[in-house]
Write a structure and sequence with these properties.
The structure is a homodimer. Helices cover 40% and strands 14% of the residues of chain A. By secondary structure, the first copy, chain A, is an alpha/beta fold.
Chain lengths: 382, 382
Amino acid sequence: MITKANRLQHVKEYYFSTKLREVRQLIAQGKPVINIGIGSPDLDPPMAVSRALQQTLEKNHIHGYQSYQGIPELRNAIAHFYQRHYNVTVHPENEILPLMGSKEGIMHISMAFLNPGDEVLIPNPGYPTYTSVTNLLGAVPVYYDLVEENNWFPDLEKLSKTNLSKVKMMWINYPHMPTGSKPTKKLFEQLIIFAKQHQVLLINDNPYSFILNDTPKSILEINGAKEVALELNSLSKTFNMAGWRVGMLLGSQEHITTVLQVKSNMDSGMFYGIQQGAIAALKSDINWFVNVNAVYKKRREIAFSIAEALHCTYDKDTAGLFVWAKLPKGKKATAVTDELLYTYNVFLAPGTVFGSNGEGYIRISLCVPEETLAQVLKRLTK
Amino acid sequence: MITKANRLQHVKEYYFSTKLREVRQLIAQGKPVINIGIGSPDLDPPMAVSRALQQTLEKNHIHGYQSYQGIPELRNAIAHFYQRHYNVTVHPENEILPLMGSKEGIMHISMAFLNPGDEVLIPNPGYPTYTSVTNLLGAVPVYYDLVEENNWFPDLEKLSKTNLSKVKMMWINYPHMPTGSKPTKKLFEQLIIFAKQHQVLLINDNPYSFILNDTPKSILEINGAKEVALELNSLSKTFNMAGWRVGMLLGSQEHITTVLQVKSNMDSGMFYGIQQGAIAALKSDINWFVNVNAVYKKRREIAFSIAEALHCTYDKDTAGLFVWAKLPKGKKATAVTDELLYTYNVFLAPGTVFGSNGEGYIRISLCVPEETLAQVLKRLTK
């Protein structure tokens, strides 16, 4: 066997893959495990999405290579979507890059801007892929604290006093996963000032803004944001299309062109039918959002009751696909989730999956039907 | 603007993107340019492919995240395909990794095994992406010569006498693009011996084996090949599905697991409907290959005549989507292709796109209808 690259020494197996293997084993042993740990939407996309894909299959010449930048209609649809929902103007010709999922975008952006040794500000708690991609490229993750007392916002004043000379990039993700914390305009303004002051590329990973949130916000709505900021977005959560792999990157022409240089050397354009499905989704009317959120609201009520059954406290005014619940003082996250798994056959995510500041918290997914959540509640309260 | 990563300093814009932009400009100016430069199949996939995708859209729960390793049915279909067509046994559970296109695989493999400074043996002439991915990761391309006198095979004896101490990987691509040279069992055997002797990971990029070739071969048919070799394959050319982005990697469990470690940190599983389309393609019966090749054979006859009209010589016994033609002595490849573009409004690829050993050659694509090739011939001979 040929030895693997050093960069893989830092990459651990994702907690979820290890744990989900265990869950599968338990199920194979006959345990009736209910999984409320994962954020993969179970609802269907808008009807028009599959129909649009289906219609392309009747056309000719849809099977060949597609442009790295996607078809112009897709970039136009993204531009309209940003105008309509975020009141942000992005030029469809050169300020939008469709991606095969926003996860892929994390690698593309990191390859475009990071040299080995560069430091990257990463939220703790936060999405683990920011760390693993940074490590894969030999750059250095520098975690910034998010704490409940500060609404899970970064303390930029404190951060400014640290040595930021090697920092090249900063990941933010508002509405925030796993806490559900919603951004304010002031937060975004301060982040842009911070990024300009320290010449840091600020990337807002923004897949959750339409889930349980009436006021979607984009970092690009701040004046002059494009000088230092990029935004990643995705259809996965907004339109229940996680498996379709449609993401997008938005920002200045210069930054987008740099990322395109990477992308054109490592992947190809998106399947034509998927692009047409994405266009149909982006054109959804306001009822789509209302209806999806009505489902999530009902589920969340039960998730709140589950949190209460576990003697947790929680914030009701959050966005996204999860309830983030604080355990009673002294309880350890993995101890609680393991106990739930082994005693009640219920799997949910310990907060520590997302970093040390997740200690003392658990994350309950809203991606399962009401009946399933009710069943969990029954198990915990009987 | 935030400065780009150093790795992008080595990455030039792909010759084709620059040139195709020029072609588009000429067309916009009213020039009737015919493009026979690009290898994107124009024919349709098997009928069953779109039908299979269409049928999935009627099912529920097909829109969520998919496993990084693809559904078991896809891996089974790939294993059967390899058994049936190459007489190679690969275990569907752990020796197959479906990919979103084999181009993506070049990056995945390189990230999995290359450290900065490692050397990579790359064919000259050859597919430019091997070089750009190597450069993106700070590894060092070391070109090995392929020349017509040696049937475009590497001179392994000569190569063994060079300093290979820093070489970690070697790209081969048989049937070879751009020359169409077909591999022999002896060549593959010698390559495996060479790879074992020098502890080099050998990767055969094998997308062309079913095009104008009755004897598809895999590097994995050599005894003990899996110890040092991987094979990349793709549905793009075999089933005219370039836009679908379906590739696959085959090799030992250890090597596949290492690549999966990279993949799981940078992308996600393939859309369920695309996987079902891929399965339908892989199950195609032998008539599929016969019929597609009948079309390419007719086209190739005209391409041969085009080569003759340009006073070129060529090998008739080649595989793949191109005719690789040798210009009359003293003629420069780009001088000829530019003259063809500006005088006859015909765009084709100069051999130098693929490396210095492509000087004195041109590449004619078979991915256009007979009538189009006939039109080119008419322009050149009238």
